[in-house]
């Protein structure tokens, strides 16, 4: 197994290089031609079910061979698909353009040679005008290797200090196997105030739709046109002052999390709708968790204030006890009392949102290439894939080539929120584009590229990268390659948990019990507590935060939810007995703990004689003192640190430079035997001195349960 793991690592590192330099033919493999992509899952299944993963030599070598063949074949599949999809590339010189002042990018230290993270787990930041030298530093790859990829993608540069476009940089980075984040730098550009983008969230039936409808009616456009047919899942409310706010109509909690999980920071402000008669409910708390995790400010709208049973003050107290620091209570979360049906308080809400936006000083670059995020995508029978997006910066122009997530297309039609065809779109505008080749996903970013060829290449490259990552993940799961990142054992890892229980009281009890499992190695972080069954929104939140979900005294999640959790690799622990739950979670925590490095006395010996090695040539260094000892306890190891004690006091500690038995170098000496020993930095042994052999061991914590039912993790 160890060999297989080492092979997996080594091959994984060399895998992408082999994409460029090695041609591996597997005649029996169904990997060529248009069906190549389809062939991969079945190939994977047929090759990887069955073989033994035990430690027997033959089984190990078979496993290793399978692994290497699999990786090469996967690379072949992808290369073949790439050749099929991409058009022939003509050699093109990167134009040297004046890109203004250099972009100040955050410093990312160059990759260490033995990086424990695999390449696909790493994300580097790239920007327009980056050089191959900088890219090599960030990817940790060789300059010549990156130049080779540059040539392969049809580009040429004179020197590695020439600036390259951000698109080319992405192609190279993807080929080198790392993830990228584009810095849409606005350095030097003129920034202008832009409207805030607001999402409305809250518990079911608390009046989100009614509130959006009421706000929609205040739109100037609506007043002018005498009613508006909303076309998109977003709309803009224009204020008499000339300012405007973009409301996202679509994202429920799930869409919000999905977008956040994909890194899209679309929303500036969350409006938390709470019904004044009903008060804080489970989905209110979920919404708070979502907004807090996304670091988005909340404005509370206490709705249905027209109802006789309305009690806004009670709602405020409830929110306060949930940790929302409301303005009335000296905090900075603003609260507005409204009635969506009675259409009261809406002006105040809009004012509050504008004030909040003003405080945030929301600005964007208006000119230059557009950047946007998808909030919704659908397939229209007549018009094909349609994506609704919120503009982030720049100007989007009809007819431009765009890459949206892993899809690409040429904008055939650009529509505003009313469905009117427009020519251009600016920051914070919700627009719909038509002309994509495939359906993107919520949260995908939209970038504009110069040519169709570049759009195709980026889309193909991104799809390939996704496929490679998927295969790698499947492969790692199959071979259970252990994560070496906790090697030092000194850091504290976090364990994010979402708790769902039957009633609030039990949820609180489970929370308190789980907190008792906090330890110096693993910090239990309860990110959300809710009542009721596990929902898609819980799964989304868990995915966004890498959390596991604990269900207590509730029915098992529905099949779609279970499948979604499985697909997202989210662990769900369902229990009805608190002790079982704690035991289960305790095991998980112990598993997750990195382990603490500890010094242990592995052996002890007594100095019986002392020797001196003299007469050495100058080049071989000074004289050396050797202690002749007898091991009285445990075992001595050549690679360990030695400690010399005299009358119970430590004289010196140093690494073992030599360990010999009868003039033979040995790795270990056991109790009862005699040996000769040289300790670094020690030339003063005396008969009767005690020498201890110190070894570093990694100690995992233990789950301990006391008889009174109390539990804890002992480190
Ligand atoms: N009295 C009163 N009723 C309201 C008000 N706002 C909404 N309602 C009623 O509350 C009910 C739910 O309103 P919706 O707007 O559908 O609530 P929602 O939060 O969008 O519901 P979901 O989309 O199902 O989550 C409807 O019957 C509305 O008429 C209000 O301000 N006052």
What is the number of beta strands?
35
How large, in whole angstroms, is the Cα Rg?
32 Å
Mean pLDDT value: 75
Q: What's the shape? A: globular
Main β-sheet, spatial strand arrangement: 7-8-6-9-10-11
Strand content: 25-35%
Q: How many strands, what sense, and barrel or not for the largest sheet?
A: 6 strands, mixed
InterPro entries: EF-G-like_DII, IF2_II, P-loop_NTPase, Small_GTP-bd, T_Tr_GTP-bd_dom, TF_IF2_bacterial-like, TIF_IF2, TIF_IF2_dom3
Domain Tr-type G: 193-363
Subcellular location: Mitochondrion
Region (Disordered): 81-116
Quick description:
The protein has 715 residues and is α+β, with helices and mostly antiparallel strands.
Report on the architecture of this protein.
There is one protein chain. This protein is α+β, with helices and mostly antiparallel strands. Helix content is 32%, strand content 30%. The strands form nine sheets. Strands 7-8-6-9-10-11 form a six-stranded mixed beta sheet, sandwiched between helices. α3 runs antiparallel to α13. The radius of gyration is 32 Å and the shape is globular. The N terminus is likely disordered.
